[in-house]
Amino acid sequence: MAETAQTPTKAYAYCRVSTKRQEAEGYSLEAQRDQIEAYCQQHNLDLKGLYSEAMSGTKDDRPKLQKALELCKLSDALLVVAKIDRLTRDLHFLTKLQKEGVRFVAVDNPHANETMLQVMISFAQMENKLRSTRIKEGMKKAKEKGRTFGTDNLNVYWKQLEAEIDTEGRIPKVRERLRELLTENERGSTSEEVIEEIQKLRDEEARFIEKVRNRKAEIPSKVRSNQALERARLLQPIVRECQSAGASSFRKLAACLTDKGIKTPLGRDVWSVGNVQTLMKQLEKLEG
Question: Within a domain: residue 18?
Answer without folding.
Answer: yes
